[in-house]
Amino acid sequence: MNSLTLKLVKSTLTTKKMNKLLLVGLLFITLMSFAQDKGVIILEGHYQGVDLYVQNPYGSSGVGFCAYKVTINENVTTDQVESSAFIVDFTTQGLKVGDPVTVKIFHKTDCQPKVLNPEVLRPKSTFETKSIKVDDKQILKWVTTGEQGKLTYQVEQYRWNRYVKIGEVEGNGEASENKYEFKITPTSGENKFRVIQVDYTGKKRMSPKATYQSNTSKVDLVSAKSKKLDFTGETLFEVYDTYGNLVKKGFGKNPNVENLNKGLYYVNFDAQTGVVWNKK
Question: Strand pairing of 152-159 and 189-198?
Answer without folding.
Answer: antiparallel
